[in-house]
Design goal:
The protein has 335 residues and is α+β, with helices and mostly antiparallel strands. It has helices spanning 19-22, 30-46, 62-71, 92-104, 116-123, 148-159, 226-230, 320-329; strands at 5-10, 51-54, 80-83, 109-114, 131-135, 168-170, 173-178, 181-186, 189-193, 209-214, 243-260, 263-275, 280-282, 288-292, 295-300, 306-311, 316-318. The longest helix is centred in the first third of the chain and has 17 residues, at 30-46. The two termini are 23 Å apart.
Length: 335
């Protein structure tokens, strides 16, 4: 029986967008990402993982640096980490292709370092492989800030079959349909912007935003997804109503929203509606751009017909605290 395999996809370009200039976003340089990967590797080895495969990248070499540091110091590792056999294009396609290869190799899980954009690219290729997302991005809605040591332990226990299914959940996603055909998807939000070109991509000026569709409504988030949390009104709405459609503009209702790290504003809302799985929203016609998870990707013509469907078939994600609790209760952390 082959040893369980864990994949690592660490994006060297995450956490560098314009929101570092217009707000107070945390900067995760690649030295810090390397330190996180060191702790991930120590967590993996502590629970018995000996095989790791990582996405190669020429910008910095995050995983090789993490391995070199530890092999030459007091924290030597016995696990093997090999770069995946793939070309490096220095685009989002690298993360997608790495996820595809890891799925084909039978990886037990994939640890990601990046923001929601990195995880969206990974989700396009990972199939049914469960993700352990560590945030090194901006808004941290899909990935979360979590200590690399315990993320590595949880990933290793999951890959080894020591974690119950109750520690894994399937995220929802938003399918973007153009003229009736699915073209793209998002994990957190889809936004209709009045800006007619992609430009710097990141959405940071709310005066350009006309409509927002959220995959999940939750408090304590940041970015455009925080609109949903601010609009929770205390009514007893069913758990099946997991998303929301929001129209922005002049209206009697204003909500206080953390749009970016340190950037908090009152936002005027014209109308909003909760969404259930398989509900479809049709955007108002007109020129503009569609942003996926905070970054403009699609330019529209005046005749474009854009619909967004809330779907239940997003990527599988591990609940790290639940995974560690389940492993402890089952005796996997005892000897």
């Amino acid at each position: 029986m082959s040893q369980p395999l864990v994949g690592i996809i660490a994006n060297p370009a995450s956490g560098r967008d314009i929101r570092r200039l217009v707000a107070y976003g945390t900067v995760f340089d690649n030295n810090e990402k390397t330190a996180i990967v060191r702790r991930v590797l120590l967590g993996l080895e502590a629970v018995g993982i000996t095989r790791v495969a990582d996405m190669p990248e020429h910008d910095f070499g995050i995983v090789p640096r993490a391995l070199t540091f530890m092999s030459g110091g007091h924290q030597g590792l016995s696990l093997q980490a090999e770069p995946l056999p793939m070309p490096v294009l220095a685009t989002d396609a690298d993360s997608t292709r790495a996820a595809q290869i890891l799925a084909e190799m039978g990886a037990g899980c994939i640890i990601t370092l990046g923001g929601v954009g990195t995880n969206l690219a990974v989700a396009r290729g990972c199939g049914n492989v469960t993700l352990v997302p560590i945030s090194t991005g901006t808004n941290n809605v899909f990935p979360t800030f979590i200590e690399g040591t315990i993320a590595g332990m949880a990933a290793g226990l999951l890959a080894s079959g020591c974690v119950g299914t109750n520690a894994v959940r399937r995220a929802s996603r938003l399918a973007v349909l153009m003229d009736g055909e699915e073209k793209e998807s998002a994990l957190v939000d889809v936004v209709l912007s009045s800006v007619p070109f992609v430009g710097s991509r990141a959405i940071w000026d709310l005066s350009t935003v006309r409509e927002v569709v959220l995959a999940k409504v939750a408090p304590a988030t940041i970015g455009l997804s925080a609109l949903g949390g601010a609009l929770l009104n205390g009514t007893a709405e069913g758990a099946e109503q997991s998303g929301m459609h929001i129209l922005l503009g002049r209206g009697a209702l204003q909500v206080l929203v953390a749009l970016a790290p340190g950037l908090i504003e009152w936002v005027a809302v014209t109308e909003y509606k909760r969404l259930a799985i398989n509900d479809v929203v049709r955007f108002q016609p007109g020129t503009g751009t569609i942003a996926l998870d905070g970054e403009r990707e699609i330019e529209l013509s005046a005749t474009s017909v854009v619909e967004v469907r809330l779907c239940a078939d997003g990527p599988f994600v591990v609940d790290v605290p639940a995974a560690l609790e389940g492993a402890a209760l089952a005796g996997h952390l005892h000897r």
